[in-house]
Please model this.
Amino acid sequence: MTPNLPTPRITLYQQWLERERGLRFADYDAMWAWSVTDLDAFWQSIWEFFAVQSPTPHTAVLADDRMPGARWFPGAQLNFAQQVFRHAEAAHAAGHPAIVSTDEAGLARGELTALSWPELQQQTARFAAALRALGVRRGDRVCAVLPNTPQTAAVFLAVASLGAVWSICSPDMGPVAVLDRFRQIEPTVLVACDEVRWAGVLHDKRALVDELLSGLPSVRHTVRGADVAALLAGAPPGDAALGRALAAARGHAALPGPADASPAAAHAPVRELDFAPEWLPFDHPLWIVYSSGTTGLPKPIVHGHGGVVLEALKSSLLNNLGPTVETGDRFHWFSTTGWIMWNCQMAALLGGTTICLFDGSPGGPSAAPDWTTLWRFAALSRATFFGAGAAFYASCLKADVRPMEVSDLTALRGKLDLTALRATLDLSALRAVGSTGSPLSDECHDWIWERLPRVGGQPIWIDCISGGTDFAGAFVGGNVTLPQVRGQMQCRWLGAAVQAWDERGASVIDQVGELVCARPIPSMPLRFWNDEGDRRYRDSYFDMYPGVWRHGDWIRITPRTASDMVEAPAQAAAGAAGISPATSTSGPEALRIIPSPFGPTPVAHGAIIYGRSDATINRQGVRMGTAELYRVVEALPEVLDSLVVDLEYLGRESFMPLFIVLRDGLVLDATLTARIHSAIRQGLGPRYVPSQTLQVDAIPRTLSGKKMELPVKKLLLGADPAKVMNRDAMANAAAVDWFIDYARRRGAG
Model:
C-alpha cells in the first residue's frame, strides 16, 4: 500500500467479501455487476460490513422488488442518530472532534471551533428533551430555517432521535419559497435564526420568520434566535411563550419515549438524561427534501432512516471516507442548508468521520470577491476531503486562484490577519477533491490537478459524483483505486443499476442516452408527502419507462479501456445516437489518464453526464446536451457564464439564442461575437452556432446553483413569467427581469 495513505475503504470491503463470503472479483466492473444483480446479497453485506445495529432481526432484505414500492429490511429497526453516536466514545477517547467549524469572521481571524462527540451528544439530548417537553412525537414535522453550523446539526439529530420528521430551508431563501415547501407538510415546530452573515453583510431574518409563522397555522411552538443556543446549552429560553410552554409540560412525565419530559430535563446535563434515540422501523421517515421548485410547487420527497443510513455507509466506500479514529479523515463539502449536500455532510457522521462546516459565502465579501476563502478554511480545518459544486471550481479557475501560494493573498492585507494565515495555509492534509451539481469541465480538472497538492505521487484524486436530492445519493462517481480519466466520472457506484438507454429503451455503451436505474435502491423516496396514490411520484420518475427509474439526465457509459476510447472516438459513437458530445472527450490529449496511487488497475466503465435530457438542443435532428456548448463557450477567458436554449417546438424552425456574461468592463461586439461563434463552430460543428448571441448581466440560477434553462425556455416560448419563474427559489431573482423583457420584445417582433 502507498506509504502514509490509509488502505482504501473499498479495498477493505473487497477483502471482507473474500474473507467472509468467499467472493473474489476480477475487477471493479465485475463487483458492480454482482452488486446490481444479487441485491439481497449486496445490501446484506453492507449491513454486516458496517455492523448496523437493530434490536429486532429483519425477515428479508428486499421483500418487494419493484419500483416504486420496493420494501427493504422489514422487521429491522434503527435510528440515524443512534448510528451517529455509536462512534462517540471511541472517537472522543482518541481525541477526535465530531465537528470543526468557523464562519466568515472566524476565518478572517484564523479561528476554528471544535465540538467534541460528547458535546454534540449533550446538545442533541438537551434539545430532544425540550422538543419532547413541547409535545413532539413520532411523525411530527419539525421545520428549520438555520445556517450551516454545528448547532443546526445538533437540532437535526435531536429531531431524528425522537422519530420526528426533519425539513430545513436555507435562510437565504425568500418567504414564498419557504412557505411553498413547509405549508405542504404542516410542521408543528419551527426552529429559526434571527440573523445570518453572508458575504460580509449581516442579514436580519426576523421579518422572514414572522411571515413564515403567519403562513404556517400548523406551527404550535417556535424556537428562534438566541433560544436555539439556550436550549442546546441547557439554559432556560428568553422567550416567555416558549418558557411557559416548557413549564406547562410539568405533570406530563408519561410523554412517550425514553427521555424525561419535564422542563428540568430539558435543561439538565446529559448525564442526568436517559438519552437514547428511539428505535424506529427501517422505513420510518427521516427528513423531507425538495425539488428545485423552479416551476409549480416543489416536490416534498420523503426519505427513510434505514435507506439513508445504508446508502450513506455504502457511499463512504466509494468516497473513501472512514472513521476518523482509523483514518484521520476530515470531511468538508461546502453547502448551504438548502442543498442535499448538507444532508450528505451530516451523513458522514454515520461512519464516525469528523465533518468540517463553514458558515458563509464561498466567494468572500460581496464588495471584494475572494475565491481563496474555502481553501483557507480547508487549510485551517485540516480537511482531508474537500467538496464543492462544479461552479465553485470554475470560479477559482476564472479568478486564477493558486490555493497553495500564500503570495496570492497579499492583496488581502488589511482585511485579514496574514500572520495567522501564513501559519495555517497548509493543504498537505488534503487527499481528495469532490465535485457535483453540474459537469466538471476538462479545464477545471486540469486546474485542480495543477494547483492542488499531489497525493501518493499522483495528481490529487477528483471524486466527481452525480446523483441528486431525489434519493440522497449518487448513481455514478469516483473510486480512488481506479485510474482517473479527465472529463469522466470513474464508475457506476455499487448497488446502482445505472444504464444509458436509447430511444428504443435498449442499454447502450459509448452512446448518449437517458440515465435510468433499472433496480431499486434503499434510499429512493418512500413517497412524496400528501401524494395520493403516489401520482406525482410516479409521474416524476416512472412515466417514460414503467418500473424503471428515469432520472432526467443524458449520460454516456464510457468504454472500459483507453485504447477502446481512442479507437472509437466519442463523437462518432454519440453521433450515431443523434447526440453530439463535447469535443473535449475526444482526441489523445483529452484522454489524459491519471493512474491510481494504489496500484495498476484497468479503467472501468465510467460515465459522462451531458446535462438534463429535457433541456436538450436539437439542431437539424441532432441532439446535444447544453453542457457541451458551455464547455466550449466558458473556456474563453472573456466569458464568465452562459446559458443556451433551443426554441424548436412543435415543428417550428429551431431558434437558439446564447446568453453570455462577460468580465467586468467588456462589451459584446462583432469581433468577440465572431470569436465565440468560431470556437463553437470548431469545437462542436457549424450546426451549433447560435442564432443570436446576447450579453446579459447574470444568468438566472436556482438556490442550488443550477442554470434555469427550462424556465427561460418556457418564458421565451410565451409562458406567463409568474408561472414559470419562482423568484423566491432563485439565487439571483433580479436576473430574470432582462429575460422577461427580451421575451416581450421577441413576441412583439
Observations:
- The two ends are 67 Å apart (CA to CA).
- The longest strand covers residues 549-557.
- Confidence is low (pLDDT under 50) at residues 250-272, 406-411, 419-424, 562-589.
